[in-house]
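Holo prediction. Input below; ligand is 2-phosphoglycolic acid.
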Amino acid sequence: MNTSFLVANWKMNYTDQQTVASLHQIVGKSTLFPKTRLIICPSFTALASAHKLLSNTLIALGAQNLNHNTKGPYTGEINSAMVAEFCSYVVVGHSERRLLFGETSDDVNLKSIAAMHQSLQPIICLDGQSDATRQSNNRTLNIDELVIQVREAIKNFPLNSQFLIAYEPSWAIGSGEPADPDSVNTIAAKIREIVTSVLGSDTGMSVPILYGGSVTLGNINNYCKLPELNGALVGGASLDPAELVELAVSIQ
Ligand code: PGA
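Structure of the complex:
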């Protein structure tokens, strides 16, 4: 797989106007990183403007969440058809959502399936931890917990499903303490093995696996050059448009 993926998770940071201003700076430089698949995920309220600005560019648009229900009395929620009007990707299962909003592995699975029904590719975030381990801030990876989490996320997926996985230990997110690259490579290989056992080797070998958690310009290639990795999901360091362009250039 030649493409390097770079997902910019802008979280709850920019208004519509600020998003547009930042995107203008990035689009103008996109010829500098033709081989990086850059996926920018701004807030819901900026998706329509971002979609207009990014159409006819190579930069893709993603949302940060969705509700798996198709419609109905879910005040404040946004379904997959609404996201698919503007986006090609959607982040699901971010550990901030698991920790702060009580999202379960079942929710993540239902969201992913709802996304794929609308031809959106879910970017499934996994930290390899049970809810109890995450809440206790325990950093030791328990392989059984990783296996359970991956299997729950992808259960009932049709064969040949198109999705990405981002391995993001919750303690590494926004902490300035990224995970050790060698162990990330081992865990990515394990994730690939689990995906292969559930969905077959075509999907297992082709699913892009990214790393996220305190990625910066200084360390991104410690991850993107790993044999089992296909890119990075970046939060804080993706917010500055010039830095995001540099990240995209550096991994191609
Ligand atoms: P961070 O966030 O790069 O600020 O650690 C990563 C993420 O959103 O998962």
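Residues 4-250 form a domain with the TIM Barrel fold (CATH 3.20.20.70). That is the main takeaway for now.
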